[in-house]
User: Fold these one by one.
Assistant:
Number 1:
Amino acid sequence: MGFLLNCLPGGGPSTSHPEWRADLFASLAAGVLTCNYPGGRHLSPFLEDLAIMGLLRRLFGRKEAAPVAVTPPSPTPSIAPPPAPSSSKPPTARDVDWRSSEIHLLLLSRFLDARPPDRVPEYFAQALGESPAATVQWLLDRGLLVPASLPATVAFWNSVADLKALLKERGLKVGGKKQELVKRLLDADETGMRKRHQTERIVECSLEARERVTQYLADKKREDNKMISAALAAIRAGDFAAASQLVSAHEAKQLTFEVENPLALPSPPRETEADVNAIQKIFTLRPKILSQMSERDWSALHVAQALSHLLHGRFSEEWLPPDFVGVTKFPADVARRMLYFHFLHVERVEKYRAAGVTEGKVLCGAPNQGTCPECMELDGKTFTLDKAPELPYERCTCELGCRCCLTAVISF
Ligand SMILES: [Zn+2]
């Protein structure tokens, strides 16, 4: 029998739910993995958050990325000039025009806000043709990344609580915003703070890099907005195939990364027919939890959720008309999520049936995680698939919407 791993991105019962975890372990033990989260490749960022990831890594033998080498810090970070570029190096993958290289611009964009030079994920390596550490060093050598100022360094490495403690130690006032705390601390003890952070360097884009990266991101945003408007128009006009193709064409132009993760099952290639079927289904769904909604809002919500489906769960309230009302108990975003959860629920039940599963157990999180009493009444109950309540649960009063999820009851 197939094993069904239920992963609701940002939804479903809390991933710390003991039964959810037991399910996962039992399923891992069974050794058959079927992921029913659309866009399987995107499973990893979600699962990364799980405390059990450590165990999963061991189970699958995932290797941790090697630590990135960082050059020793400059003693006076804020004023040290960048070293002269070396011209004797043999040409490498990084000898490209950084101004027109997307991967270099993307890497630089991570440093619009100051951060340590080793905070570039290893998965950049493939597109860079070398380790991210080597590229970062090259950008530092070229002066495109520069050491951040002392105030930025202090602000980066200290939380507000840390800053307050440091101020208190020095008999200074502890009130104000973070920037004010940093300034007060530096005004009083610049030498001490410089010493405290002399081995912890952070870097940021140079003015030149910042200008080009900002322009690049603005161009990307414009292109993205154009695609969104065209796809929304196509969906509203009922041309779901055109919407799917617009999204496909846009995605094909994007830089993609191969992220090594044993849990990330490759998503099947986008198929217009599957997209059209999914959107047609979305348009038929009206979960009872949203039953107060007006006819006009249903149509707007279906359109927004259809696009969200094409974009792997991405959503913006801007896709809804400005006068969207929805339902009184939820904000528009939650209403949209309830439609999405209902779609997942319907799909899930179909998959259970196809896999020969006949019973499902409702899992709803816990009262201390904001689950309402109505949902808690369902928690842990087993139903035959025919008798299972519609999810999201129509009587749910959870502030963030119902997170109940029907998991398959499987006997091994
Ligand atoms: Zn609830």
Number 2:
Amino acid sequence: MTTADNKANAAAERPGYAGVAIALHWIIAAMILGQIAGGFYMHNLPDGNQKFELYQLHKSTGITILLLSLVRLGWRLTHPAPPLPGGMPDWQRLLARGTHIGFYALMIGVPLGGWAIVSASPLAPSVPTYLFGAIPWPHLPFFDGVEDRKATAEAIAEMHELGAFSILGLFALHVAAALKHHFKDKDGVLARMLPFLKRAGSA
Ligand code: HEM
Ligand code: HEM
């Protein structure tokens, strides 16, 4: 299939994502990348006020990501994504689908894991969580009877870190695919998440 065919397909076959899906995609993407950078930064700080404040901010932005991701998943389940370009091989379709499902799982699973660390922590009974210093946020109830809270929180924190690395792995794959669609296949897939590209007439 020629590039011109691809472009014709892009225009004829596929409407773009709705504005809500696009807005949620970019807000959540930016927040997650900031959250990962901030998470590693705060983790490596010496104990003190700054570390404490950054942990509180990390919890607040993390729970916000969780809530936005749940809204986004609800939206996605009720609003199907536009179909992929006609000429795309099956393995690429499968990989795209797997990456997107993996992202949804991590966008929800990683913050849930963070919430579990905080709830299991030995500090949980004495340090309540207030989102952005204002909104009381409960601890998960599952850890009340746990004997070794410290070891439990540390084990969940390991998984939380692994989850963050998994997001980075999927991110690399996802961006590489987006750039391949845009520069090699020229099939308009990136433009449906970045509508200004369409308006600029470059896809
Ligand atoms: C998508 C959302 C989130 C991402 C991508 C994320 C990412 C990270 C990263 C990269 C770290 C540093 C890991 C390390 O160096 O060991 C971290 C640590 C941490 N996160 Fe999150 N986080 C998210 C949400 C949350 C939420 C919602 C909470 C709590 C309500 C939370 C609580 C924590 C805590 C307590 C630590 C420190 C763990 C430790 O000191 O061992 N995170 N997070
Ligand atoms: C951590 C950051 C990111 C996350 C978590 C993420 C997540 C996702 C998810 C879950 C979808 C599927 C949307 C759906 O069908 O519901 C998607 C689609 C898409 N993303 Fe991202 N994304 C991120 C960053 C990026 C970046 C930086 C780019 C561009 C370079 C990008 C380009 C796209 C494109 C073009 C689509 C549409 C794919 C299609 O039409 O099938 N994303 N993204």
Number 3:
Amino acid sequence: MYSDIIIIGGGASGLLAAIGAESILMKSDSTLSVTVLEKMPRVARKMMITGKGRCNFTNVKPWEEFSAHIRTKKNFLRPAFYNLSPESVIGLLEDAGLPCQVERGDRAFPVSHRASDVVDTLRGIATRWGARIEQNVEVKGISVNRSSKGDIFMIAASGSRSYSCRRLILSTGGLSYPGTGSTGDGYRFAEAFGHKITECFPSLTAMVPKGYKDASPEKNGHLDRSAPLSSIGKALCGIQLKNVSLTLSSGGNTIASEMGDMDFTDGGIEGPIGFSLSRDCVKSVRNGGKPSLSLDLKPAIEKDDLRERLRGLWKEIGKDPRSSKMPIPALTRVLLGKLMPRELIQGFLICNPEILKGRKGNERIDLDCLTDCLKGWAFPVEGYVGYERCVVTAGGVSTDEVLPKTMESRLQTGLHICGELLDIDCDTGGYNLQAAFSTGYLAGQSAAISLEKEDNG
Ligand SMILES: Cc1cc2nc3c(=O)[nH]c(=O)nc-3n(C[C@H](O)[C@H](O)[C@H](O)COP(=O)(O)OP(=O)(O)OC[C@H]3O[C@@H](n4cnc5c(N)ncnc54)[C@H](O)[C@@H]3O)c2cc1C
């Protein structure tokens, strides 16, 4: 089958590539055809699970602030961002009948809070504007027929199907959540054209503290999410902490510090501030470093003030007639109950046994030590959860070999590359989907514009 433009991968960037191409072709009443090939039975399976099923599809911060959340070469994304801004994405969805709203942190969601509504709307726009979407078509290989009139891409797909096109867009995504169809096929396709792939690794993922799992990490630090929890992991898993501070360091040097909310899960430490630190942490583990996290449960209080406060509280508890016969460990739990969520106490004491000194029956609490532990609960990190559950893939097709104004390959005319397949990754908060939308839209538009130019001489 021949189509003028073929897009491989019908995820966030692929759908926007189709919409971008059709936005150009519609204007000129062109008969040029656009086809999306998607290997899964439905397009955009990954987008369906974004934002915990609510789809935080963009972030409306202006470029200066938005770009601070891009972890790779920020300026590469700039032309694509201005070509399809977060406001334009909202406009596209709302014009197609999907009301959207901006919530805390400038994050945009559909009012319905249903990711499927975003997918259905984007898919609807693409097909209404003229794109053809073929599902259950897995691309296996690509070759090029060179001719003086321009190169033709030959695509071999599952079921002995074959396709050809004059413009090819690769939008096959990264490696995370392979069950959604993103299994990294595009790296192989891009490499065959000579593209350099910057080393890939999981980002926005759980960091696994030493002793959290009853299993050892692989050589590269990967520790599968499904590995069984240890008694420490069991004591902490499921606890969510608000307004705490987490600092990542390695070899005595602070790498980064974040304040906000974090979660202990079946994977390890994650949640918003855990995710923020995970990229650097995974990198460190993979490079053979010995990263460590320090959790400050009381970031709003200086250490000396906290120590004084603990002394006051301890005295108060000692004077309370209800606690007169209680042993020290029980009194300590009463004290900790005033300082942290109840469910955290057991895990806190297991991880910080030095707070209680002396032998049973003769125990005493070390308030200085307690202060230190509250301000700097140490979690040496031994591993990380991999692509099976990470949010995004860091690394990918090097942006040095892709033109930022068109997303066209510098190595192969007519080939465009977009989305997570590129070496672009961002923080959580709608930035990753916006990057996929903007690069996809620009790739689609550029492919259509160059074809029209070619045909009109
Ligand atoms: C759990 C989770 C939650 C997330 N939440 C958010 C969020 O709230 N906000 C946000 O901004 N980002 C979020 N992200 C990240 C975001 O989903 C991705 O960055 C984005 O989907 C990348 O878009 P893409 O088009 O590049 O790749 P994908 O969306 O992965 O699409 C790639 C498509 O290509 C298809 N494909 C692959 N190989 C082939 C082949 N050989 N032949 C045919 N088709 C193929 C795949 O099946 C897939 O449909 C989340 C990610 C995860 C995993």
